[in-house]
Amino acid sequence: MSEHTLVFDGIGKRFGEFKVLTDVTGSLAQGKVTAFIGPNGAGKTTLFQVLTGELRPDMGTVHWDGAEITGKSPADLARLGIGKLFQDVRVFRNMSVMDNVVAALCAMETSSWSFFDLVLLSRRSDLRDRAAHLIAQVGVDARLDALAKDLSFGNQKLLAFARLLAGNYRCVYLDEPIAGMSPAMAVRLAELIHHMVENDKMTVAIIEHEISFVEELADYVLVLSQGQVVGRGDAAEVLGNPVTREICLGL
Ligand SMILES: Nc1ncnc2c1ncn2[C@@H]1O[C@H](COP(=O)(O)OP(=O)(O)OP(=O)(O)O)[C@@H](O)[C@H]1O
Ligand SMILES: [Mg+2]
Which of 17, 36, 44 gets mutated to test ligand 1 (max ligand atoms within 8 A of its CB)? Predict the structure, then answer.
């Protein structure tokens, strides 16, 4: 790999007696897409939870730009430029499309949770213009004043993606970004991810079951099965391997 901005080494995690991850080692390269594939229950989401600070590993370390970040909270990691798109969509359901993205931009501007500070900030026209731009960029197909809960699942995911872009991160984790999206939305999202890596040199990690999407986007692939790495390398090579295809697709 070129530049290994994020390195995880010997990650182990148990839930009670159940070993979910065993000695999982790998890395993410800047300006590249690394895909994590494997059957249901392989431990992909759990690994992302460890890498994004939602879960503390029992064993192993995580380094970002050479500094150890193992066990840091998601808020700490967000400040370091690491963000995540969750497998279960997370938007403010009772807020409008516009205010969802404005809120994400406000969070970047201040660490104050004072109601008055936030109200003042959320009225700033530059933030509202930037929010409108991000919403148009990801192609959320809804009025800006529509409530998030009234959007289709696919549009809620695009809205969550706009909130992620508002975070201005250097490294993003995308857990099944296109699940539940229409084919047109998936194409739009693939274009956005391409743009993120080509233009902004972002580090992208993606979990995806849709192999054609992985083939189109990924530079590198890591295959997990029963909590262990069973394959890794260049995307074309790994995806062309009959053993990988059997593990991941049952082919
Ligand atoms: N909080 C938890 N407590 C106990 N077991 C858990 C917990 N979270 C996940 N697991 C178990 O750990 C295993 C790995 O789950 P994980 O969600 O990481 O898999 P995955 O590869 O993301 O699967 P999918 O492709 O279905 O999303 C599964 O057997 C799951 O049931
Ligand atoms: Mg998962």
Answer: 44
